[in-house]
Amino acid sequence: MDEHRFYRLELLARRRYSKSWVERGMIWLYDVSSLCGTSFVRPLLILVVFMLLFGFGYWASTHKPNELVAALNPLPFRSLDTNFVDALRFSVENTVQPMSVWKHNLKEISSRDAWVVGFLNEENALRYLLVRLIATLQSLIAVTLLFLAALGGKRRFQMSS
Description:
The chain is mainly α. The protein is built from seven helices and no strands. It has helices spanning 2-17, 21-34, 41-60, 65-72, 82-96, 114-120, 125-156. α3 crosses α5 (82-96) and α3 packs antiparallel against α7.
């Protein structure tokens, strides 16, 4: 475990004295997201937070601003909006099946996924593309965080010789 701490401190020192802002930024992101590859729990927690944030974003994008405030106002005192559950399911699907938004054929989606058909709305081409690009960003973040979690797990349970 000491070599892992040493590796992390070495990267942090490198970040401190680096002249390249790109290198400093990448090391900072690596440290924030997984403690420089020494934590497997942190990337998983961040992944869950991102799933919730993207789910909320997908849900919020289907409301006008005044409707959104009204929908959020009495939240603790009423049942959860079914559209929010559908948006969260869409977010989880983008995490578990990366790039799945590009596989959607809206004519073959079941009636159970009517929210997805309405959300993707092929008739508005710009919105359709924008939603797909945002979902792609979510997939890339999810794959990266899962990779960092696997790397942290490998380092955590690595047998030292």
